[in-house]
Records
---
Amino acid sequence: MSEIIKALVVDDEPNQSNLIRKVLVKKGLDVTEENDSVEAKRLIKSNFYDLIVSDLQMPEVSGMDLLNITPKETLFIMITGFGSVLSAVESMKNGAYDYVNKPFNLDEFILKIEKAIEKINITKELYSFKNLVTEKEPYLGIIGTSKRMMEVYDFIDKTSKINVNVLIQGQSGTGKELVARALHFSSDRKDHPFVAINCSAIPENLLESELFGHTKGAFTGATENQKGVFEQANNGTLFLDEIAEMPYQLQAKLLRVLENWEFKPIGSDKIKTVDVRLISATNQNIQEMISNKLFREDLFYRISTISLNLPTLNDRISDIPALTNHILKNISKKFGKEIKIAPDAISLLTKHNYKGNVRELENILEQAAVSASNNKIEVKNLTISEDKTFLDDCLANTDGMSLKDLERKYILKVLETTNGNKKKAAEKLGIDRKTLYNKLSEFGLLTKE
């Protein structure tokens, strides 16, 4: 079954936008209808749509303005005034997939929509095929077909063959080591070692030895010569996880090694030379650490010739069903029995606010599997609650806050969960959109774009 296609209909005439929405809904699309072109601009910036159908002439923001900010992966159909050939041609030059003159012929419009759907489905199938490949080498279990993950796969494809240092940034549990392994095993170094260490897990007094090695008798407890990870990874890839946790003084020594790939083991006068590709990772705000003199700026530039920011799980909610199935396969092997999950339980998982990312999802599922009856995870087995999680987040740090300030914070949180979509936020708040706009104006949060 094909993934549901998301569409946005934009027209300042509600009768026409409603007609278009009905056509698209009948074709099985998930449709958002918007009559405010300013709001439509915000929606396009904060969401990904497979298809956008927009009127050309609208107050404040035109259809051409919307086309110019639309991702190239999105198909855009422009609705132009009758006989406005020049506008239609201009929109096609700017990247529109097709155009429709209004008042338009409904049968012709439906035919164009069907062709667009066919093209979108073919593209999604190609993405799904690529994702199947990424579950094996060289991607080593990276799961997901969301737009954000496709960008990660594209980064791996383009970067793996380039022999430069890479910095991967992202929250804990986003899969930084998986991406590092994928970069290694899809590179020309794949037949050589991949060595990984966590800089935060090694005591400060032992980290230098772990990196560069030591000779017998170099310090108390050094009973034999030991190779450091740089030497172990020679001709391959070295992954330094949580590099921001490295002591400041040791950062200077690492910088010198990266300048010429030469080092001396502790207790030795012999210089060793290695050929290593360095991939580093951190969940810290490294620029802030540089400002606070906790991380060397010159080292930052040396380790981040190319950098990648990994999306959080909240940024790729559409991947949760596939991730859940993948995790449950591993749990089933661990427990020696097949664990399944109910559809409404998956639905709840997609509404949770994940602070621990994929690692948190794994923990939730493993706990649920322990308490599941008949080897099937139900909603009652999940130790999460959408409302409780959201309210806990809203009520954090509210001591001494006035009722008005609390209301302001709550509205902002709801808008955050809808990616700025005021229509959906109003529905969640149980008020009409006009009331929401009045509240935003009252709180000084209403801005023109």
Note: The mean pLDDT is 85.
---
Amino acid sequence: MSDQALSEFRYDPFSDAAMRDPQSFYRVMREEHPAYYIAEYDTWVFTRFEDVWNGYMDREHFSEAEGMLFTREQLLIHHRGEPPEPVLEPVKAMFLFLDPPVHTQHRQATAAPFLKGSIARREAEITALVRERLALLLPRGEFDLNADFASHVAVTMVCRVLGIEPDDPEALARAVNLTVGVPPDGPGVAEGRALIYSLLLETVKRRRAGKGPESPVIDSLLTRDTIGRPLSDEEIAIDLNGILVGGTETLPKIVAGCLLELAQRPDQLAEVRAAFPGSVVPAFEEALRYNAPAQWFGRTVKKPVTLGGIDLEPGQRVILNIASANRDRREFDSPDEFRWNRKVRRLLSFGVGPHFCIGIHLARLEGQVMLREFLRAVKSFAVHPERGHWPVSQFQIGWTSLPVTIDELA
């Protein structure tokens, strides 16, 4: 940014400039405006690690009753006082967006397949899937790290965990990426959402009839009471959408981004290979910090609270910026540098507090296996960001398309 731009600094998460180059805004905000007030929205944006961490951990003063992915239209309507109660008749949002105790009870009902031990037992299955996919892709000589490789693995695994049988995993992954990567009313968004919802609703109806593959998640939601009454098929489908989208859309961006960062740093790639295969764990963790696709989540203030030196009133909204916090020099040394062997003490990429990502263990294992098997199979490769696609979005950023050329197999 120019000196004039700095003196006239303005930030709006929904502006085209902020969506295309968010980190240039975040650097200024962390140093000069760590708590940035947007009067148009009556909303505070927090960008330093400690403030963001504390905001997510504070379930007493912050609510998700209005959801956590605020739209511009939503923020334009100001309100002070008690935040609205979540709508449970019928449930109109994913349970991820609700507060305890409903959120806690619901999470307990769906958590078992995503626990660390349950996921660890799937390593052989994930490895076989990754090797099978690479065996198909590598002979081509060029393919897409996200669309052809990582998205296929991610959507296949989350569907297996949920007991979903898509006819076309690639089409499902494209639909997911489309619905989060363009404006809500953009071309193809309605069709993508309809495809996803139809698949989920059909799956729930089959399980209620005792048909289709077993699904601990769906079966638990069909039989357990989390809101004082049974859930409808439509409500369960809405909730599954959060798990499916979260498990399909974010991880491929991180995997593709990690391989790009390594390809652009031959010295680090050589170090990763020298310390292989244990090196894939810290390399993936650094990619989580450096390339985490989720920019921010929102909260509504429930009770008077001070965060980052700012007194907040009930009803106000806050934006807790993960992508900025993960580049905060107060938490990370030389944060704008990618270092494959960085020792990370705390990380916000999966969230923290009561709403941390339920798929954290699945994502970590999948990502590590994909990196390990790709580097094991490929001796030399080149990534082509100039031919890739980085969609504009106020929420999820990252490469939805990133071509790779295979120069030499191992």
Note: The longest strand covers residues 403-409.
